[in-house]
């Protein structure tokens, strides 16, 4: 159980360190999602709950990743830069 908390802390630290590069930020957010999904699955398994909530959480994660990827494609086509500092969204 402590492994998931350490993974979450390391993922949040990595997200704060690579926040200038948009693609790496999306990858770190996906690692955070995977860690939370594993914690959620372990919790559901421990208390013998149904796994339908885990499936809903997984579907929401897929939607989040597809939205992030489509935003990345839009920003790269619009600005041709991959770094967040160079974006002027206003």
Automatic annotation (TrEMBL):
Keywords: Membrane, Mitochondrion, Transmembrane, Transmembrane helix. It comes from the Eukaryota. The chain crosses the membrane at residues 21-43, 55-76. This is NADH dehydrogenase subunit 4L. It comes from Laodelphax striatellus. The lineage of its organism: Eukaryota, Metazoa, Ecdysozoa, Arthropoda, Hexapoda. The gene is ND4L.
